[in-house]
Amino acid sequence: MKFRLSLLLFAFIVLLLAACNPDSSEMDNGEGGTDSEGESGEESSEEGGEEASGEETGDDELVIATGADMVTFDIHDHNNTSTEAIHVNMFNYLVKTDGEGGFVPDLATEWENVDDTTWNFTLRDDVKFHNGEDFTAEDVKYTLERVANDDSLLEHGNYNQISEVNVLGDYEVEIVTESPEPAMLNRLSRLGSGMLPSQYIEENGFDHFLEEPVGTGPYQYVEWVRDDRVVLEPAENYFGEEAQYSQLTFRAIPEDSTRVSELITGGVDIATNIPPNDWERIEEEEGLKLGQSPTQRVMMLIMRTGEGEVTSDQKVREAIDLAIDNEAIVESLYEGAATPTRTRVTPGNTGANKDLYDTSVYDPEKAKELLAEAGYEDGVEINFAAPSGRYLKDRESAELIQAMLSEVGITANLEFKEWSSFVENYTSKTFDEMFMIGYGNSMFDAALALDRLTQDQNEGETDYMNEEVEELLNEAESNMDPEERVEQYQRVQEIIAEERPQIYLYQLDAVVGMQSNVDFEPRLDEMIYVKDITKE
After folding, report:
1. Residue 189, SS3?
2. pTM
3. Strand 534-535 and strand 518-519: pairing?
């Protein structure tokens, strides 16, 4: 009871501070790249913010405020979810996910898994790029072989399974993989698979493409004012339904308070990542409403397990897990807009283990017992790094975790890092015993979510090694039996939940504010498909 009261008091103070000093958080972090979950290469949180313009948007235009600027127009050299959320309106994939574990046509009308390593795709024959050039199988070959062969690109690790792409005709293409690839359609329906104009790039160079990007999507490029806005307009050559807005603008507004002010004054139609302390304000404002939906993003703690580390002892890692009251964090900081989890493979992903979702193991007394058994009856000290302003309530969450750990005798030396500094430590793998991060999963498959648990991926970071996990992950990667593959991934999650090289905290919800005449439902993958947004 004493801890519960102190926690509530601490949470109340944190909330007061947050209300006075709103963060510039963005629930981002894409996936992919050579590091599977992809933090490296993403943009840092911007400081400051703009003043509310006070100018209302027009009826035939749509303005969306996000927490950070786009990173690049190179679809292969970023792993940033909020950048992909813009790109999906300019570029098309071969196939798209249907939201229920299946796939629907996009640029491909039909596909066939010819054998374990060969996939054939039939393409639409009525698609043109924004510059008027025809989309053909040559563009598929150029796009996929570029990312599969260039190991300097951040998305290379998700496509290096492709050994060759063969043109069978103008509108038929064959993709051959090194080994069986059960998640091929997942990979082709996400970041890194937007189709590029091969002829345009070969004639003008890739640098020119980055300045004047060309895709096949419903909207085409107008301008990118860095750290301010990306402006698009309807594409004249789009093969699908005509775009409904004469102008589409994504505004980068890092400050929560400014983003909310722009929404209230009518300067934007939609504002993403609304913090809990602004929910009531928006709901009470006439002409505004909130939208909320789960995302793929899971906040977690990454633990060093190598020899000589305090956290190499499984009992210490378990004590850390048991000391953290996930449910209290969810209720006090996120007001229910998150779900406690003991796995990163959440519902909606192939391989999800539902027994480990929406559950918590909080037990501070058992945590103290485990520390004593590990030889730390008088307490133990660890270093704890966390980003500040990158994810929704990341700073406050880390402070609560620090307070909870102290209650069981764990002194966590908490160091906050601004995003660019955090990414530097992340990519160089120079964190100490524990750091906090949030991972998403645009693949909708356990392959991406669990990839960083392999010895090849975690060397120098967690240094975790479990022979059964290694074997299961290697087998599942090329297992074409879907039921057996799911069982393999579920078993891995059970082992990780017990051995805890990664400690999962909670899955975040997306909470957006919008004008009452706007109909928009946040997606699990955090993509913003403008064709699905209506404005009356």
Report:
1. coil
2. 0.81
3. antiparallel
- Under the banding of pLDDT at 50, 70 and 90, the label for residue 154 is confident
**Distance between CA 371 and CA 217 in Å, rounded?**
56
Work out the number of other CB atoms within 10 angstroms of the CB of residue 179.
Answer: 10
Distance (Å, whole) CA 531 – CA 218: 8
User: So what's the pLDDT on residue 536?
Assistant: 86
In this prediction, residues 12-37 reach a mean pLDDT of: 38
* In the block, residue with structure tokens 């053909």: 136
Question: Length of the chain, please?
Answer: 536
Neighbours of 116 (CB within 10 A): 12
CB 339 within 8 A of CB 357: yes
Rg (CA), the chain: 23
Q: How far apart are CA 178 and CA 302, in angstroms?
A: 31
Helical (H) or strand (E) element with 1: none
Distance CA 135, CA 124 (A): 8
Provide the greatest CA pair distance for the chain. Answer: 72
402 is written with which tokens?
């620090």
Please state, as a whole number, how many other Cβ atoms lie within 10 Å of the Cβ of residue 482.
11
Alpha carbons 395 and 391: distance in angstroms, whole number? 8
In angstroms, the CA 303 to CA 384 distance is 10
CA distance 57 to 349: 37
